[in-house]
Amino acid sequence: MSTGQTDIAASTPPPAAARPVGRPREARADRAIITAALELMAEHGLQALRVDDVARHAGVGKATIYRRYRSKDQLVTDAVGALVNQEIEIPDSGSTREDLLVLMREAVELYSGTLAAKLMPAVVEEMSRNAELAAIARDRFLTGRRAALRAVFERAITRGDLRRDLDVGFALDVLAGPLFYRLLITGGPIDEGLAQAVVELILRGLSPTSPRRTKPSRTKDSK
């Protein structure tokens, strides 16, 4: 081999398959940091979260965290966003009752004994004083979920299962209200019974009103 050929071979980068792949390690660190932040916030609250604690819990250095997040606030908002950023599938079984039950059961599963259930009270508290966090929680979670529920309600109106003058926004609040009231206030069970009771309440309370019956006119004999 000539000297020129040797120089060319030495300067040629190795094929892609032979190059070290850094992204999987980066992805693992990303997941570890987010998981550690969520677990610590669920245990101690959002205000008590410290980057040092997250680093120890995740098994990474502080520098690794600060390369990704410019501040603790950004870490908190990104972690909460990752928790609630779920793809919502709009059920369409052909039955309004079944579609609502599917969505309610998903909510029951999410908020019964999971990390989300432990973390949500702290998130709600922080939303009252952190506008950025409040916007992320609403945009990444509430907006998508309410859109899915709205589609189910609008389909039910078209079918005639719910009344045509229904205030869909109010109906969405009624559907979710009992679950969050139990989660945040009473601590009551969040289970299948709750899912079924709320759906029955919606279907009965918001169904098309029956035609008014004309009162029978009074006759002399009825006086």
Give the second-level CATH assignment, the architecture of the largest domain: Orthogonal Bundle
Poorly predicted runs of 5 or more residues: 2-22, 210-217
Percent in helix: 55-70%
What about the largest sheet? none
- The number of domains is 2
CATH topology group of the largest domain: Tetracycline Repressor, domain 2
Radius of gyration: 27 Å
Sequence of secondary-structure elements: HHHHHHHHHH
Task: Determine the structural class based on helices, strands and strand pairing.
Answer: mainly alpha
What's the average pLDDT? 82
Shape: elongated
Q: What percentage of amino acids are in beta strands?
A: under 5%
State the name of the first-level CATH class of the largest domain.
Mainly Alpha
Task: Please give a quick description of this structure.
By secondary structure, the chain is mainly α.
Strand-helix topology:
Blueprint: H1 3-11, H2 23-44, H3 51-58, H4 62-68, H5 72-84, H6 96-110, H7 115-127, H8 131-159, H9 168-186, H10 192-205
Helix pairs in contact: 2-3, 2-5, 2-7, 5-8, 6-8, 6-10, 7-8, 8-9, 9-10
Describe this structure in words.
It is a single chain. With 223 residues, the chain is mainly α. It folds into 2 domains: 23-71, Arc Repressor Mutant, subunit A; 85-205, Orthogonal Bundle (Tetracycline Repressor, domain 2). Helix content is 67%, strand content 0%. It contains 10 helices and no strands. The protein is elongated, with a radius of gyration of 27 Å. Mean pLDDT is 82; it is low at 2-22 and 210-217.
